[in-house]
Write a structure and sequence with these properties.
GO terms for molecular function: 5-methyltetrahydropteroyltriglutamate-homocysteine S-methyltransferase activity; zinc ion binding. This protein is of the alpha/beta class. The protein has 28 helices and 20 strands. 42% of the residues lie in helices and 12% in strands. It binds the ligand Nc1nc2c(c(=O)[nH]1)N[C@@H](CNc1ccc(C(=O)N[C@@H](CCC(=O)N[C@@H](CCC(=O)N[C@@H](CCC(=O)O)C(=O)O)C(=O)O)C(=O)O)cc1)CN2, methionine (MET) and zinc ion (ZN).
Length: 768
């Protein structure tokens, strides 16, 4: 080992939205003009300071900085290296507003595309690069935050997205030559990283962390060679801080050896998602002179760490690495701040959970146990063991009736009649026109609705008044849809805080948190529920609302549910059984609801599965096993009903390429799918994959406040009709409307219906 000081116990990153979502509030205040820029930065500074104080106070040896972000850390990286698109920089806004324009759009300039950060529910902004992109150290955020921390007395370790992950997450800007690959920019990008590293070194920075999670996914030989070139080059720099490269979210494959042999000083490995890294590193000689951060405390789930398992993983590496330190498996960005805020949780369950603050304690404890010996912290280890033992022994988490139902499942429980027969029966029952129009479920969540829900939750209004208010809203939304002329109506989802949390609050086996906010993108957060035991549905969850909506109209009202994979993807799930088994339990609960909706006279039921792509394993070798259980769980939730009951599903967040066969296999009668931004390209892919059922390509992008005009929607429809026959095609927006306002939604839906009628007329089937 070099004489460099060690990193020691640390975490790879920390939540940044604020324990009380302070950043969310100040951002939204700034965007709306209520808050000035100085206050925005003051709040941000306060949050950074609190975080450093917290991390130092917990007793970590090394504290990360530059883990704060005003919106997204990938966008920060693009801004840092001067790689924002010209359409945004040429607006000539302040640095702050240019950054937000890239994130959210401004003056007609489109924002960067947003997509999932690996298999998490966090979304990053996709940098746009081209052959003309140049990189310079245009910003100073890592340096500024380092100085800010030092002024407060904290020596920190700036964290950056690694050069390879940055390029691999970027896309070719529109209009650049077909053969352009962002990796072609590696050499100039490395120059810029080298410049930055030199500056940080001159400032006195001891360690820099470079995150390379992109190598937990399948990579080509060319990409692996680029990884090798990259860290040879950065490692060889004469004037630089210590380099820590962090790979997380799965098995790094041959990238692990490449990094082990490279001249970097330290590696962080994720031993939660990939325990095999312990043995794989042992085979790498290069590790003997490196510090290895053993990521044994889960950065993505919320269960207390099993200290014995964690310690044995870390201890096994003692013989391999120059030095072993304890860390989290990934950044803690994906977990809430503090479980102590959850006073509404049962004490026993709260005791089993560790949020970010509790995880700091676990890292420090394990670090001491590893280096000072277990007897130095014997009492604390015993306490940690007792909690894990208590959870493992809790027999009441298993529900015999659920287990018996699962044991009795047979293949016929996941099968419906043939699609052709179903289509006939459904048409006879629903009598829809060609190109039927519908929406994806939610209508705008107005301030009024949110306040009513909040008042009910806080007990300021009773259930009678609450139900009255929701019914009034449902009636308003039904009348509006009738006036607009939509064919299949929805109740609008006013009673739902979130499409997963709403169901979790009503299912046994789940607990909802009050303050467990996790950043989803920008200022938007979610509160993932905790799935801790066997899942079952004590009583109907949506039937009353759907039945009420249907009672108001002769048009079919579409019932609205969330499918099993999405419920799992957006919850913290139990880690004591296979995800496939948990999915089956959730599927049975949804199945019960589907059956009750059908019995209540609901003839169309949509079961949303937008996260089907999200849980797809990063490694293609694991895809088949995933699809098997994911598809089965959807089919289990949606079968055993009449042929005449029409099942819809909905998927959004693009990149459907990998899941096309699964979209067919789930056997929904109608699939609505995000398509507007890709100009309907997904339809050709679906056709090529042999998709033969109903499809509703989103004809306009709900993520933008722009109202699509009739010509535009008609054109999208005509384009879609080249790929899908008219008798299987539906007309709908891209996604739900809950984040939009009525000022846009009403004209947009009117135009959508007018366009559907126009295209019907062109085809000579206008007769209604
Ligand atoms: N779980 C989940 N994951 C998902 C999605 C999703 O819909 N759900 N969609 C994608 C991501 N898109 C998203 C889109 C919007 C929001 C979003 O708007 N979130 C809201 C919170 C939504 C919520 O749970 N709202 C609750 C609680 C709202 C709240 O903050 N209430 C106040 C008080 C009420 C008030 O006076 O407003 C408080 O608790 O302080 C409700 O409406 O009931 C926000 O950040 O603002 C999140 C993700 C992918 N992942
Ligand atoms: C993220 S997909 C949203 C589907 C849901 N039914 C809605 O309209 O909001
Ligand atoms: Zn959607």
């Amino acid at each position: 080992m070099s004489e460099r000081t060690r990193i020691g116990t640390t975490v790879l990153g920390y939540p940044r939205i604020g324990p009380d979502r302070e950043l969310k509030r100040v951002l939204e205040g700034y965007w709306s003009g209520r808050v000035d820029e100085a206050e925005l930065h003051r709040t941000a500074r306060g949050l950074r300071q609190d975080t450093w104080r917290e991390l130092a106070g917990a007793g970590l040896d090394s504290i990360p900085s530059n883990t704060f972000s005003y919106y997204d850390h990938v966008l920060d990286t693009a801004a840092l290296f001067g790689a924002l698109p010209r359409r945004v920089t040429e607006l000539d806004l302040s640095t702050t507003d240019t950054y937000f324009a890239a994130a959210r759009g401004a003056q007609g300039a489109q924002p960067l595309e947003m997509t999932k950060w690996f298999d998490t529910n966090y979304h990053y902004l996709v940098p746009e690069l081209g052959p003309d992109t140049t990189f310079t150290v245009a910003g100073s955020k890592p340096l500024d935050e380092y100085r800010e921390a030092r002024a407060l007395g904290y020596e920190t370790r700036p964290v950056l997205v690694g050069p390879l992950t940055f390029l691999l997450l970027s896309k070719a800007a529109e209009g650049v030559p077909q053969d352009f690959d962002p990796l072609q920019l590696l050499e100039p990008l490395l120059q810029a990283y080298a410049d930055l590293l030199r500056t940080l070194h001159d400032e006195g920075v001891q360690w820099v962390q470079l995150d390379e999670p992109a190598f937990a996914a399948d990579r080509t030989q060319g990409e692996l060679d680029a990884l090798s070139r990259c860290y040879e080059a950065l490692g060889e720099l004469a004037e630089r801080p210590g380099l820590l490269v962090a790979g997380y979210f799965g098995n790094l494959g041959s990238a692990l050896g490449i990094l082990a042999r490279s001249p970097v000083d330290a590696l962080a490995v994720d031993l939660v998602s990939d325990p095999s890294a312990v043995d794989n590193l042992a085979a790498e000689k290069g590790v003997q002179d490196k510090e290895v951060l053993a990521g044994v405390v889960d950065g993505r789930n919320i269960w207390r760490t099993d200290v014995d398992t964690a310690l044995s993983k870390a201890a096994t590496m003692l013989g391999t690495a120059g030095h072993v330190s304890v860390s989290t498996s990934s950044s803690l960005l994906h977990v809430p701040y503090d479980v102590e805020f959850e006073t509404g949780l049962e004490d026993r369950l709260r005791g089993w959970l560790a949020f970010a603050r509790q995880k700091l304690g676990e890292v420090v404890l394990l670090g001491r146990a590893l280096h000072e010996g277990t007897s130095a912290v014997g009492e604390q280890l015993d306490a940690a063991r007792a909690v894990v033992r208590e959870r493992a022994a809790a027999t009441d988490l298993r529900e015999p009736s659920v287990r018996a139902r699962l044991d009795a499942l047979r293949p016929e429980h996941t099968r419906r009649g043939s699609y052709a027969e179903r289509a006939k029966a459904q048409q006879a029952s629903l009598r829809l026109p060609e190109l039927p129009s519908t929406t994806i479920g939610s209508f705008p969540q107005t301030g009024d609705i949110r306040r009513t829900r909040a008042a009910y939750r806080a007990g300021r209004i009773g259930s009678g008044e609450y139900r009255q208010a929701m019914r009034a809203e449902i009636e308003r939304v039904i009348r509006l849809q009738e006036a607009i002329g939509l064919d299949v109506l929805v109740h609008g989802e006013p009673e739902r805080n979130d499409m997963v949390q709403y169901f979790a609050e009503q299912l046994d086996g789940f607990a909802a948190t009050e303050h467990g906010w996790v950043q989803s993108y920008g200022s938007r957060c979610v509160r993932p529920p905790v799935l801790y035991g066997d899942v079952s549905r004590p009583r109907p969850m949506t039937v009353e609302w759907a039945g009420f909506a249907q009672s108001l109209t002769d048009k079919p009202v579409k019932g609205m549910l969330t499918a099993p994979v999405t419920i799992l993807a957006w919850s913290f799930v139990r880690d004591d059984q296979l995800l496939a088994d948990t999915a089956r339990q959730v599927a049975l609960a949804i199945r019960d609801e589907v059956h009750d909706l059908e019995s209540a006279g609901i003839r169309v039921i949509q079961v949303d599965e937008p996260a089907l792509r999200e849980l797809l394993p990063l490694r293609s070798s694991e895809h088949k096993a995933y699809f098997d259980w994911a598809v089965e769980s959807f089919r289990l939730a949606t079968s055993g009903i009449s042929d005449a009951t029409q099942i819809h599903t909905h998927m959004c967040y693009s990149e459907f390429g990998d899941i096309l066969p699964a979209i067919e296999a789930i056997d929904a009668d109608v699939t609505s799918i995000e398509a507007a931004r890709s100009r309907m390209e997904v339809l050709d892919d679906l056709g090529a994959a042999g998709f033969t059922r109903g499809v509703g390509p989103g004809v306009y992008d709900i993520h933008s406040p722009q109202v699509p005009d009739v010509d535009e929607v008609s054109e999208q429809l005509r384009r879609a009709l080249r790929a899908v026959p008219a008798d299987r095609m539906w007309v709908n927006p891209d996604c739900g409307l809950k984040t939009r306002g009525y000022a846009e939604v009403e004209p947009a839906l009117r135009n959508l219906v007018t366009a559907a009628r126009r295209v019907r007329a062109e085809r000579g089937t206008a007769g209604e």
